[in-house]
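Need tokens for this chain, all 137 residues.
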Amino acid sequence: MSTTTWILLVVAILIAVAIIALVIRMGRNRKVKADRVKAQNLREEEDRTRLQASEHEADAAAADARARQARVEAKKLERAAQARAQDAKEARTRADEHHQRAVKLDPNSDGLGNNRLQRDDDDESRGADGIERDHRS
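Here are the structure tokens for all 137 residues:
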């Protein structure tokens, strides 16, 4: 083999190595660019996720505030119901006391202004069919 052949062979190998190096570099550049795009997409997704998390936290805080307000309202309603029940109990006690005093003052009254003795006499003057009978004869 002559020296020219050796030189051409070496030049061809160098050109092949240069082409391979260039292809590898271009592949790496594409990979770096793809990684940058992917990283940018992930950052954008992170921003969206953080925004959603902030919105969820705000919604949770608002729901918590509404729940606290509802508990306060429920306690107010419960106290009002207890007060009304106590008022009703006191009113019933007073009504019972008034009834007992009324019975002591007029034991023959039925509480509606009617005299029990008179009503009993009226009941006796009627028969089982509800027709008034004259018992004087």
